[in-house]
Structure formats: structure tokens, C-alpha cells
């Protein structure tokens, strides 16, 4: 561990260097209290934009592993829906929103019309309105084109990670951390969709790899449930969507989401009145 | 769907998804979100993500299956426990998949 930490020599450099990457890796591997100690050092060194970008890349890597099974499943689903490996890979690279892609592919394979496929995509991706609103102020320092790039990169994983780190990074570095963290996610997502599309047929059905998809959402859902109103929103949304699963065009998902949000807001305001 | 329809679907899906990600931050350059909307939006992830998780665990062949022999429900509950205690994505996904695999065999 010690020999990997060559940050004293290189950490002050203005250019992103291998030492920075090692530094960030060191921090990742430390016990939590030690890592806090190291972070205070990093602050004193006043890291550059490039270093924040690299930190973003390094810190998202554990979460990037989570998109591996998800990408594989999407690649397989694309082939099943009648897309070529190139088409499904381009879909992942351009749409870059797994849940909505899976719903869209399911509808495409059952012969839904274009309008309903797009409608389903909008419904499943409505949460990006909320993410985009919440991250907006952190991305303000960026130029217009870079902000558009950052918007394109916005997914559950880097949204949550960046918001958690924004305080210690400060407003100048947070956007660069965000942009960096989006890179491995996007590359991993596109590459493993392609792998799934080309090799997916060889994965035996008995592995139940498709079960990785709800598990991916579960990983994102659990840390989101932080209070009683969010718990109630999740339960109401989930149960409603389950009971209405038979409705056409996956509209149960949308109705469930609305019901869950309403339940959460209602409980929150009721508690406020009590206080 | 033929190839042209597939490409139109892909490009339209990409466009609407990008707009959902970009337009809110663009609009918020000049003004703030209404407080009631901000409050409602905070529940979007929990309410939407659970709609993607619950049906996969609770339904078997489109029928509600609230029982101990529902392998996906059992594996999912284990994954929830792992996710809650470890906050580790890889451990959760691997744990859930292995649990389902074992349950389906024994």
C-alpha cells in the first residue's frame, strides 16, 4: 500500500499524472478513518480540475462493475427483440438509460406502436427531471457545451455519488468530478451491451442472469429510502406497479410512481402539521 | 419492426431521454423550481425504482406469489438485507444471483 502512495512527489503537479490516479486509488482502498485523513491532505494540496476528473473516474469504478450484468442483460434483450448487435449497442450508447431501454425492448418485441414505446421511455425516465433539477446548481460553473455533455452523462450512479462528494470537493471541482465519473459508466454500459448481444446466447437460461436487472435497481433504491415518507413512497409505488402489471404499455409503472409520490408528499406534510 | 423503424425508435428515445436530463437544468439557470414541485420530485427515485423492483420479486407468471417458495422473492429479500447492511453494489447483485441459483436447485 505504502509504495503506491507516491503522491507527495507528484500530487502537486498541475497535469493529471499517474501519481494522481494512484493517490485516488490509495484513498479508495484505505479504511474509512484513514481515508478521511488522506482527504484532508488532498484538500490542502488544492487539487486541479484534471485531478478532480480523474478522481471521478476512480471513485465510480466499484459502481461501474454493477452495470456489467445490467449491460449483458440489455444486450441479450436487444437480440431477443430483433435488433442487431450494432443497433442495440448504439441504443445503449445514445439513449444510455437501462431501465427505459429494457421496457422499450419489451414493448418493441410485442409489436407496440412507436408512440407507446416512446411514451414508456418518458415515463421510466421521468426521474431524470428530478436528478437534473437537483444537480443543476453543481454544474453551473461549466460552459454551455460541457453542461450539455454532463446532462447526457446523468444517471443514477454518478448523480448519487457526486451529490455525496460535492461538499468536500467544493463548487469549482464538483462538475469535473461529475464529468469524470460519467466516463467509465458510459463506456462500461456500451461495451457490455455489445458483449451481451454477441455472446449472450451462450449464457444458459438456468443462470437467471435477467434477475440481475431488478437487483441493480434494488442497489439504487435501498440508499434512497432514508425516511418514513420515502419508505411509504417506495412501498406504495412498488405495490401499485405490481398490482397494475397487467395494464398495457407498462402504464402501471407510471401510475405506481404517481401514487408513490403522492403518498410520500402526503405523509411528509401530515408530519409537518403535527410538529 | 424493420430496421428503419428500429432506428427511428432509438433516435427518438435518445432525444426524449436527453431532453429530460438537460431541459430542467437549462430552465433552472434563470429561476427556481416551485417548492411543491421540488418536494414531489424528491420522491421520484424511490417511487419509480420500486416499481421496477417489486413486480420482479412478487409476480410469478403474472400472478401474485407471496410465498416462501417464490425463489425470486426470497433471493430479493436477502439482497435487500445485503444492500441495506453493506451498501455494496457488487455484493448485493452477486448475493441475490447466487441465492436464486441455489434456491432453484435445492
Summarize the entry for a quick read.
The complex is a heterodimer of chains A (275) and B (106). By secondary structure, chain A is mainly α.
Mean pLDDT metric of chain B: 91
Number of helices of chain B: 5
Supply the helix-strand structural class of chain B: mainly alpha
Given helix and strand content, the structural type of chain A is mainly alpha
Helix and strand pattern of chain B: HHHEEHH
Say how many strands of chain B there are: 2
User: Which ranges of chain A are low-confidence, i.e. pLDDT below 50, for 5 or more consecutive residues?
Assistant: 1-35
Distance between the termini of chain A: 51 Å
User: How much helix, percentage-wise, in residues of chain A?
Assistant: over 70%
- Helix and strand succession of chain A? HHHHHHHHHHHHHH
Task: Kindly state the percentage of residues in helix of chain B.
Answer: over 70%
What is the approximate shape of chain B?
A: extended
Largest protein interface?
A: A-B, 93 and 66 residues
Number of helices of chain A: 14
Task: Name the strands of the widest sheet of chain B in spatial order.
Answer: 1-2
* Rg of chain B, nearest Å: 20 Å
**How much is the radius of gyration of chain A in Å?**
21 Å
**Strand content of the residues of chain B, in percent?**
under 5%
| Overall mean confidence score, pLDDT of chain A | 82
What's the story with the biggest beta sheet of chain A? none
Descriptive account of the structure:
The complex is a heterodimer of chains A (275) and B (106). Chain A is mainly alpha-helical. In chain A, helix 2 (18-29) packs antiparallel against helix 3, helix 4 (49-80) runs parallel beside helix 11 and helix 5 (85-95) runs antiparallel to helix 11. Chain A starts with 6 loop residues before the first helix and ends with a helix. In chain A, 77% of the residues lie in helices and 0% in strands. Chain A is globular and about 55 Å long. Chain B is extended and about 60 Å long. Chain B has five helices and two strands, in the order αααββαα. The N and C termini of chain B lie far apart (41 Å). Chain B is mainly alpha-helical and 106 residues long. The chains are: A mainly alpha (275), B mainly alpha (106). Chains A and B meet through helix 4, helix 5, helix 6, helix 7 and helix 8 of A and helix 1, helix 2, helix 3, helix 4 and helix 5 of B.
